């Protein structure tokens, strides 16, 4: 929208407070602040929701792969042939055997639930999810028959364990004796403590070489499952269709969406709901722009009539008032972007500060899965939010602008 020199001058004059126009300027300022808060809230919430999904996906998939080929009854006796078939499947980048079994952990008389995971030594040392989150000790000490394990940070806290302490793993399915089944208890040295960042894993994980897990669970040369990574996580079902046909009757394939369906579906629904609810804030702010422009038109009725008698066109008046409203919306949108990204940059510090002042735990990992507030901004979503705010601001200017343009100077100036 191209403005002439006088149109720019008048639009600028109407944006600044004049004598006796403090209330109109106050309403316009409130409108700007409302747009700013609405845009900032949308950017913050959508970025945090995206961060939740990305962090959960990276950590969960980093530990469990894109899919697992799991044997019936939790046992996969011919896992070598299944492993060979998985690696030969087109689109599969990595496949490895794995054991996972819920057991118990004991330390100095204290008992906690433990999720024992047996992995190959190469996988333990090459997994970024593990190697980048070691809080104490070293994963290099995890070798077959070494008696060393790595445990989650929350499990270590709950049991009061430090690196070098001995933890006892309790397996209720022990050996059968004439007097009944004797639970199996084996002591292991804690060689490393890891903090993956997902509470459910950190509070239970006990990671050991797969050979040690087979010995603990009396499995022999048997594993529970084959972990599979593919070239595209979103197309994992399509990629593994040929493998599913080959292992039918021996095993079942479960991908990451099925393993965490309720969690990711809840995030998707909440994400849409939050976007709709917070968009209403922007809509309310736009109505403030509408009301401020209507008051401005009523206050400037005499000025508008004079401009019309001096030769100002209807189109010129429409452009002036549209420029005023869109400028308020644009400034509010720009300020909202700055506020939103500033909050996201200092998000964890702000959460910690609020917790310190209020004395309340606002970020309980046991409830929110992750140990820190995540964030991941999507440029497309930010663009959509800004365009939406500007579009609403533009639509709000139409009625006041055409109302001003249709002002009859004869009726206004008749008694002047």
SSE diagram, text form:
Elements lengths: L4 H11 L6 H43 L2 E5 L7 H10 L3 E16 L2 E10 L1 H6 L1 H4 L2 E4 L10 E5 H7 L6 E12 L2 E15 L4 H4 L2 E5 H8 L7 E6 L5 H4 L1 H6 L4 E5 H4 L1 H39 L1 H9 L4 H32 L1 H12 L6 H4 L10 H27 L3 H5 L3
Parallel strand pairs: 3-8, 5-7
Antiparallel strand pairs: 1-9, 1-10, 2-3, 2-6, 2-9, 4-7, 5-8, 6-7
Helix pairs in contact: 1-14, 2-12, 2-14, 2-17, 12-14, 12-17, 14-17
Task: Give an overview in words.
It is built from 18 helices and 10 strands. By secondary structure, the chain is α+β, with helices and mostly antiparallel strands. The chain folds into 2 domains: 5-57 and 263-413, no CATH class; 77-249, no CATH class. The protein has a 6-stranded mixed β-barrel with strand order 2-3-8-5-7-6. Helix 2 packs antiparallel against helix 17 (379-405). The chain is elongated.
Spans of at least 5 consecutive residues with low confidence: none
Q: Determine the structural class based on helices, strands and strand pairing.
A: alpha+beta
SSE string, helices as H and strands as E: HHEHEEHHEEHEEHEHEHHEHHHHHHHH
- Computed over alpha carbons, the radius of gyration is 32 Å
How are the strands of the largest sheet arranged? 2-3-8-5-7-6
Could you say which overall geometry the principal axes of the C-alpha atoms support?
elongated
Distance between the termini: 34 Å
Note the beta-strand portion. 15-25%
Largest sheet: 6 strands, mixed, barrel
């Amino acid at each position: 929208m191209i403005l002439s020199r006088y149109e720019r001058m008048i639009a600028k004059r109407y944006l600044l407070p004049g004598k006796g126009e403090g209330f109109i300027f106050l309403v316009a300022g409130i409108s700007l602040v409302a747009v700013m808060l609405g845009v900032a809230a949308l950017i913050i919430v959508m970025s945090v929701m995206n961060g939740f999904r990305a962090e959960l996906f990276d950590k969960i998939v980093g530990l469990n792969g894109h899919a697992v080929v799991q044997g019936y009854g939790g046992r996969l006796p011919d896992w070598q042939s299944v492993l060979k078939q998985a690696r030969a499947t087109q689109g599969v980048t990595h496949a490895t055997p794995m054991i996972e079994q819920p057991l118990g952990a004991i330390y100095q008389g204290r008992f906690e639930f433990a999720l024992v995971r047996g992995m190959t030594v190469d996988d333990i040392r090459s997994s970024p999810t593990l190697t980048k989150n070691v809080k104490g000790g070293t994963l290099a000490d995890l070798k077959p028959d070494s008696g060393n394990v790595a445990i989650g940070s929350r499990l270590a806290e709950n049991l009061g364990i430090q690196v070098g302490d001995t933890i006892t793993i309790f397996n209720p399915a022990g050996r059968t004796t004439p007097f009944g089944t004797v639970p199996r208890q084996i002591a292991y040295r804690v060689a490393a403590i890891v903090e993956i960042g997902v509470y459910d894993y950190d509070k239970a994980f006990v990671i050991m070489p797969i050979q040690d897990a087979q010995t603990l669970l009396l499995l022999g040369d048997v594993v529970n499952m084959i972990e599979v990574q593919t070239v595209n996580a979103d197309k994992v079902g399509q990629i593994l269709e040929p493998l599913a046909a080959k292992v039918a009757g021996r095993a079942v394939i479960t991908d990451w969406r099925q393993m965490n369906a309720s969690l990711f579906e809840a995030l998707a629904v909440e994400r849409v709901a939050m976007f709709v609810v917070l968009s209403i804030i922007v809509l309310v702010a736009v109505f403030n722009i509408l009301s401020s422009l209507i008051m401005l038109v009523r206050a400037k009725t005499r000025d508008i009539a004079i401009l019309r008698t001096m030769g100002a066109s209807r189109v010129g008046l429409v452009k002036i008032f549209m420029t005023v409203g869109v400028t308020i919306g644009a400034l509010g949108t720009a300020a909202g972007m700055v506020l939103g990204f500033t909050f996201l940059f200092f998000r964890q510090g702000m959460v910690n500060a609020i917790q310190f002042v209020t004395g309340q735990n606002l970020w309980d990992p046991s409830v929110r899965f992750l140990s820190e507030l995540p964030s991941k901004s999507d440029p497309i979503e930010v663009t959509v939010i800004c365009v939406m705010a500007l579009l609403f601001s533009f639509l709000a200017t139409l009625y006041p602008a055409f109302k001003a343009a249709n002002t009859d100077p004869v009726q206004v100036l008749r008694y002047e």
